[in-house]
Amino acid sequence: MKQKKKWLSRLAICLGVLSLLGAAGSGMANIANADEQKISGNPVSDNTSVRSITIWKYEINSSTELGERGDGINTDPGKAPDLGGKKLMKDVNFEIIKIEAIGNASLIDPLKQVEGKDWEVNTSFAAIKGKTDKDGKLTFNVGTGKAADGIYLVREIKDSTSGDYTYTDENGETKKINKPMDPFFVHLPQTKRDDTGKLIYDVHVYPKNIITDTKLDKTIEGGKGYSIKAGNDFQWEATTKLPDGLYNKIDKEMTITNWLDPEDGLHKDLVIDPSRLPFELFANYFKVKDSLDERLLLKDVEVYVLDEKQENPIKLTNGTEYEVTLGGTKVIDPNKVEDLTEGSKKEVEVSLTDVGMKKVTLEKNPYLQVVYKVTTNKDFNGTISNKYDVNYLLPGQDPVTETSEESPEYYDGGFDIEKTDEGSKVLKGAEFHIATSKENADLKTYLASDGKSYKLNEDGSTTPELPKDVYFVTATSDEHGKAEFNGLALNWFTDTDGDGKQDPSNPAEKTWDKDKIEKKYWVVETKAPSGYELIKDPKEVTVTLGSADDTNIELTIVNKKKTDLPFTGGTGTMLIIIIAIGAITIGTAAIAIDKKRRAV
Question: What distance in Å separates the CA atoms of residue 179 and residue 155, rounded to the nearest whole number?
Fold first, then answer.
């Protein structure tokens, strides 16, 4: 009997446990994934659950990557969602406020329903702000129980320090966001989209930012500085890493919001339905703008695309793959983009056509390079710097304007000579050549207008022969004893490998401070003023960016007067001349007398 009671007791305990488990199981059936995301099978909201919105923030490169609208479900509960290789975005700022509909307004899209007309802020709820963590995640807990039920507005906000929409990239650098994500409404709890009898208490959303990752780099002859003899050709390069989204071939239905219709200039939704597939979607525009210094003479503009390593340039065709305007006037091949007018800026705009945008996308040429071929006046002295702008509008985004950060510079310098005698009297008519080294000066190897040096031979010929239209750089003292050399090349960086070109990535070859930029030259007097001796030896002079200033004399050259040498002939010579003349006279008279006598 005791054993039977004991058995019944154990059975009762087991049944009790099973009953409890069944009750628990019944409760769990109403809440799926209770530890990760609370989804209740009870259509009536409870008064005990926390209401929250979890944001997973990541970047995309174009509007075509937006995908379908979310349903509030965490695709990978308890972990960062599967982003398909997309990058998470850290330190993106958000704000959440509670709102109420005005009248019978249906709150679906904050871009369409307007504050003050369709909805108003529920002032009983204090706005909450936060930023995404290293996993791109941010959770807003808005409260517990029915008091927290309602509609919330989630929006991206500016960083309080910088005043911009920002995020922190994988290198820890703060980057600007071109266009913040569109704000959106969230019901808490939210009805499950595919099973409308259930409620989601922790709604997961996946707002995206389109990050273009455009990079601008202005160089001059491939470096961050340059210097040659003024009057010779050189070039500036504007190299831009192109944004994604210039061209897309769309093969599925989608809607691009905030699209600027180029036909009427209005923003609207671009609905791409099955009847329009496949659909080619282009950026509204991509433009490179440059305002070249008025001291530059523009000789032409060329456009290239480069590969990932910024190599293997492919020249684009003007009028087909890009269009160019100079001062607002379109320039079409075969005409050069040329303006040789001094004293006026050269406003150049290069704009990719649809053909060009498609080409750079399909051929995977991510860099666009605009090359400006220029020169200066042959006597230019000073510094010229230059930046450029990029303007573009991708589908569904706001217009972007970016300016290159670094401004490469071009340098030339000159110097002044004062020519006097020993008594400080200024001398006119002294002629000078210039050499780039003492050795060249000693060997009569002088600087020419093309920036190269040529040997001047005894017979006046040159070795090697001067090219056509090239001449020696010379100066002649005027009535004030003044002579000057201008437009001379300067040294502006340390050429560690001796190749004559700056490597901007090598810290050892960085550009010098301006007060260190200089170059030594040697002056040779090749013709002395009348009545004076040549100076015989080359004179060294240091040319800087400021030495061309006429207020200072960098080199004073003093000539000595010619000495008086003894007469080389004396009076004996004169006597011989007189005797000779007398003899001629007498001889002539004798002949005349003899002729007369014979005649008699």
Answer: 12
Backbone region of residue 76 per phi and psi (left: phi > 0; alpha: psi in -120 to 50; beta: other values): beta
How many residues would you count in the chain? 600
Looking at residue 572, its pLDDT comes to: 55
Of 564, 559, 563, 548, give the one whose Cα is nearest residue 428: 559
In a domain, 156, yes or no: yes
pLDDT digits (tens, 9 = 90+) for 227-258: 999 999 999 999 999 998 999 999 988 888 88
pLDDT per residue as tens digits for the range 500-519: 999 999 999 999 999 999 99
Taking alpha carbons only, the member of 108, 118, 399, 358 closest to residue 258 is 399
From 179, 239, 235, 237, select the one nearest 215 (Cα to Cα): 239
The predicted pLDDT at position 589 comes to: 64
Task: Specify the DSSP class assigned to residue 487.
Answer: E
Q: What is the domain-level CATH number for residue 259?
A: 2.60.40.740
C-alpha neighbours within 13 Å on the C-beta side of residue 124: 6
Q: What is the pLDDT of residue 571?
A: 54
DSSP letters along 61-83, please?
A: SSGGG--SPP-S--SSTTS----
What is the predicted pLDDT for the residue at 12?
Answer: 38
How far CA 154 is from CA of 139, 380, 544, in Å, comes to 12, 59, 60
Same domain, 292 and 365: yes
Angle at 315 between CA 311 and CA 319, to 5 degrees: 150
In the chain, what is the greatest distance between 2 CA atoms, to the nearest angstrom? 207
pLDDT band at 269 (very low <50, low <70, confident <90, very high): confident
pLDDT the model gives residue 524? 98
Q: Is 38 helix (H, G, I), strand (E, B) or coil?
A: coil
Q: List Cβ neighbours of 412 (8 Å cut-off, separation of 6 or more).
A: 227, 228, 229, 230, 376, 380, 381, 382, 486, 487, 488, 489, 490
- pLDDT 10s digits, 74-125: 876 545 555 566 788 999 999 999 999 999 999 999 988 999 999 999 999 9
* 522: Cβ contacts below 8 Å, ≥ 6 apart: 434, 435, 436, 437, 438, 440, 441, 538, 539, 540, 541
* Separation of alpha carbons 201 and 31, rounded Å: 10
* pLDDT value for 7: 41
- Give the CA count within 13 Å in the CB-facing half-sphere of 128: 16
More confident call, 534 vs 586: 534
Of the listed ranges 66-70, 132-136, 284-288, 433-437, the least confidently predicted one is: 66-70
Q: To 10 degrees, the CA torsion angle through 84, 87, 89, 94?
A: -30
CB 316 within 8 A of CB 286: no
Domain that holds residue 425: 411-559
Co-location of 528 and 458 in the same domain: yes
Number of Cα atoms under 13 Å in the Cβ half of residue 108: 5
Same domain, residue pair 301 and 395:
yes
Give the whole-angstrom CA distance, residue 63 versus residue 257: 9
